[in-house]
């Protein structure tokens, strides 16, 4: 696939920030992705395309090292207090994204999840602890302990999509997934990572696995619970078959027609790519 950058395994143990940037690049170039922005089309999106995503990634990329540094600086704080140290960095990074995209939300979810991973990596390395899928996910879970209760259950706020969908359906979205230590990624994606030999097919299979199970608030905000169910069932059907690229292209058309975009699963695909670079 033209333009698809490849993660250099030699970086895996040393640079979570660089891995995060490469994961975002790989995610957006990966084609065909149902309903999402990719190299062929903008899926269900009318306000975004590949050049906008590349501009957004260029704006976000320098922040990943800031998340790692913030983690190193907050290494000695108890996990529950450390989250407050990373949030201003996350918000500044979101602002850099919105400046680069003229106000379009291209990567809010990705910034949140990858920012937490980078912050966790900084905290662990500063304490001379080994980086692994298990240690990174446990650290993110510890950082986010109580987040869903504080920000979604108790606050009662309905300012963002995620806050509204929690009040309405009890979906905890990106916060819930982080608080669980990326349980969806650990349970449904990483164990099957090397089942596919071809790099691009491996990523597409991982995306299908995510779409089959993830309670993606992007899908619910665009198509209600029926939209979420539709995507989960379509992905499950493909996973139970000998799926080919043409099947993903057909699914792309169906999701685009229905205005459905699994943005949360795209974010978790990037998280999966970063984690897959580390030992279990
Ligand atoms: C928590 C955030 C994502 C709030 O957004 P919101 O309330 O709309 O939440 P919601 O979960 O619905 O979705 C946000 C985005 O996450 C992604 N997402 C949706 N569902 C899921 C899911 N199940 N799992 C993972 N990601 C998901 C989508 O891309 C979506 O657009 C975030 O914007 C925030 O609080 N930002 C402040 C910066 C910050 O705290 N950073 C800390 C670490 S960097
Ligand atoms: N390739 C991709 N294509 C589309 N969305 C993606 C992609 N990769 C990640 N995402 C995630 O999807 C989210 C954007 O989804 P969406 O545009 O549906 O949200 P929104 O802007 O809140 O809603 P709307 O467009 O309905 O106003 C981003 O936060 C981003 O993290």
UniProtKB/TrEMBL annotation:
It comes from the Bacteria. Its EC number is 2.4.2.52. Keywords: ATP-binding, Glycosyltransferase, Nucleotide-binding, Transferase. InterPro entries: CitG (IPR002736), TriPribosyl-deP-CoA_syn_CitG (IPR017551). It catalyses: 3'-dephospho-CoA + ATP = 2'-(5''-triphospho-alpha-D-ribosyl)-3'-dephospho-CoA + adenine. Signal peptide: none annotated. Gene3D superfamilies: Triphosphoribosyl-dephospho-CoA protein. GO terms for molecular function: glycosyltransferase activity; triphosphoribosyl-dephospho-CoA synthase activity. It holds the Pfam family CitG. Belongs to the CitG/MdcB family. NCBIfam families: citrate_citG. This is Probable 2-(5''-triphosphoribosyl)-3'-dephosphocoenzyme-A synthase. The lineage of its organism: Bacteria, Pseudomonadati, Pseudomonadota, Gammaproteobacteria, Enterobacterales.
């Amino acid at each position: 696939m033209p333009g698809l950058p490849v993660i250099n395994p030699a970086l895996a143990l040393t640079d979570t920030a660089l891995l995060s940037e490469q994961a975002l690049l790989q995610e957006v170039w990966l084609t065909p992705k149902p309903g999402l922005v990719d190299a062929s089309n903008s899926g269900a999106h009318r306000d975004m395309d590949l050049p906008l995503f590349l501009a957004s990634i260029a704006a976000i990329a320098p922040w990943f090292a800031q998340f790692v540094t913030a983690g190193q600086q907050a290494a000695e704080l108890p996990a529950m207090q450390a989250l407050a140290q990373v949030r201003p960095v996350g918000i500044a990074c979101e602002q850099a994204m919105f400046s680069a995209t003229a106000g379009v939300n291209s990567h809010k979810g990705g910034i949140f999840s990858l920012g937490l991973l980078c912050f966790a990596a900084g905290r662990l390395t500063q304490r001379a602890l080994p980086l692994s899928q298990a240690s990174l996910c446990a650290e993110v879970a510890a950082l986010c302990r109580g987040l869903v209760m504080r920000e979604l259950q108790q606050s009662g706020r309905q300012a963002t999509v995620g806050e509204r969908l929690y009040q309405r359906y009890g979906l905890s979205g990106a916060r819930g997934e982080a608080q669980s230590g990326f349980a969806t990624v650990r349970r449904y994606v990483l164990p099957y990572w090397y089942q596919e030999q071809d790099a691009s097919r491996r990523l597409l299979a991982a995306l299908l696995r995510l779409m089959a199970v993830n309670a993606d608030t992007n899908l619910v905000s665009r198509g209600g619970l029926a939209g979420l169910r539709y995507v989960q069932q379509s992905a499950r059907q493909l996973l139970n078959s000998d799926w080919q690229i043409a099947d993903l292209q057909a699914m792309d058309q169906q999701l685009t027609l229905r205005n459905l975009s699994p943005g949360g699963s795209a974010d978790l695909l990037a998280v999966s790519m970063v984690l897959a670079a580390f030992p279990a």
